[in-house]
Design goal:
It contains 14 helices and 15 strands. It folds into 3 domains: 72 residues, PDZ domain (Pdz3 Domain, Roll); 197 residues, pyruvate-formate lyase- activating enzyme; 133 residues, Rossmann fold (3-Layer(aba) Sandwich), CATH 3.40.50. The longest helix has 22 residues. The protein is globular, with a radius of gyration of 24 Å. The chain is α/β, with parallel strands linked by helices and 434 residues long. Strands 1, 3, 4, 5 and 6 form a 5-stranded antiparallel β-sheet that branches. Strands 8-9-10-11 form a 4-stranded parallel β-sheet.
Length: 434
């Protein structure tokens, strides 16, 4: 396979050698280039021989550069070909539970091993080819993030509705033996892969020294499950039972290997009505993207920021919108801030997620429409703070396509998206930056 070079960066090694947009890249040092992983791996040498096609004729260019320096080639898409979609039909898939009419990109199911390495996406290993497995091992691509869910082969096939789903342990073992670091995710469904099945999964995963962390997250259920497998949500009791298992295995792992690998998402502690573990519990915070330790980290960061900040607030009154699950935490953070700056009034408004039917409580899935409907007509003060997790990557639009600009116009207030960082939160509340 070959790929068309879209453009070449001015001043780059490739530009200095006369390589042009429109040239077709065939190989680097004799290695065929299929996609971005091949390109990034084979361009790292100090001496790189490029085989190109220009106007149908073969051209070779030799570039000498510093090791790991970029060649300077750019392509139509970051992956150099199409992103690969998921072939599973998981009983808990959130995308299958989304209402119709949202932007098309939200319905794309990703299961691309390249994105696991490049952006931290989680993959199921059900669609991975032998070529990709061997390439990951050869290139020592690490870490790989894997959605495991269960290590029971029959149950995994049933949960994911994919005949290849049962091979997960085989691939994990090959990666482990090759020294590939792995982070794992378990989406837990009450009565399906919890209890004894969860114990089996954690026992199996304990055997692999190169699994760095395992995050268990509760299944998310919307009101749009017509025709899908019936699933009961977690309640206080089942959440507590699940945390007990995770902490039991985590404590054993900590004793045996001096590091904890098994964690429950913050949402489990909220459902179980238990206090979050202390900051030290989470080690290197390897599972923040799965909502593991975010609350403990934010609280510690805010405590540090309050101690180091002596500025006076520029606001008299502001409002913070959040998901229902995080409301108690946000109220506790507000209490901390007001202990030092009692002169600023901070309203905390939990937003009920009516868009998804009321059962989804995390902040990251709150829509602009629900914020508008629930905050219209209220005295919000001088500024409305929202977590940046409510917005897409560009920080301009909610899941329901409501834009930040529309939200500002409807509520007649300046809206500020705040990163999940204690110092950023304090700066936004005080109005001392930006």
């Amino acid at each position: 396979m070959s790929v068309i070079i879209k453009s070449v960066l001015n001043g780059s090694p490739a530009h200095k050698k006369g390589i042009k947009g429109g040239d077709v890249l065939v190989s680097l040092n004799g290695n065929n280039i299929i996609d971005v992983l091949d390109y990034r791996f084979y361009q790292n040498e100090k001496k790189v021989v490029l085989s190109l096609l220009r106007g149908g004729k073969q051209v070779k260019k030799t570039i000498r550069k510093n090791e790991y320096a970029e060649l300077g080639l750019e392509f139509d898409t970051y992956l150099m070909d199409k992103q690969r979609s998921c072939l599973n039909k998981c009983i808990f898939c959130f995308i299958d539970q989304m209402p119709k009419g949202l932007r098309e990109s939200l319905y794309f199911k990703d299961d691309d091993s390249r994105l696991s390495f490049l952006f931290g996406n989680y993959i199921t290993l059900t669609n991975i080819t032998e070529h990709e497995i061997e390439r990951i091992i050869k290139m020592h691509i690490s870490p790989i993030n894997i959605s495991v869910h269960t290590t029971n082969p029959e149950l995994r096939v049933k949960m994911m509705k994919n005949k290849n789903a049962g091979r997960v342990l085989e691939v994990i073992e090959r990666f482990n033996n090759a020294g590939i670091s792995m982070n794992c995710q378990l989406v837990l469904v009450p009565g399906v892969n919890t209890g004894a099945e969860l114990c089996r999964t954690l026992t199996d995963l304990s055997k692999y020294e190169n699994i760095r962390s395992v995050a268990a997250v509760p299944v998310g259920l919307t009101a749009f499950r017509e025709g899908l497998t019936k699933i009961e949500p977690f309640n206080k009791q089942t959440a507590k039972e699940t945390l007990d298992i995770l902490e039991q295995f985590g404590n054993k792992n900590l004793k045996d290997s001096h590091e904890r690998k098994f964690y429950g998402a913050d949402e489990f502690y909220i459902l179980a009505e238990q206090d979050f573990p202390p900051y030290e519990f989470y080690g290197d915070f390897l599972q923040l993207e799965n909502g593991v330790g975010m609350c403990a980290l934010l609280k510690q960061e805010l405590t540090d920021a309050i101690e180091l900040t002596n500025a006076e607030p520029n606001h008299k009154e502001i409002t913070m919108a959040t998901g229902e699950a995080a409301a108690a935490l946000i109220n506790s953070l507000v209490f901390q801030i007001n202990e030092k700056w009692p002169q600023i009034k901070i309203n905390v408004c939990p937003i009920k997620n009516n868009f998804f039917g009321g059962k989804i409580t995390v902040s990251g899935l709150v829509t602009g429409r629900d914020i508008i409907n629930q905050l219209s007509g209220k005295n919000l003060g001088e500024k409305l703070l929202i977590p940046s997790s409510m917005l897409r990557h560009e920080n301009d639009m909610f899941l329901d396509d409501t834009t930040v600009l529309e939200l500002q116009e409807k509520l007649n207030i300046k809206v500020v998206a705040v990163n999940n960082n204690g110092q950023d939160l304090l700066d936004a509340v005080l109005g001392t930056k930006g």
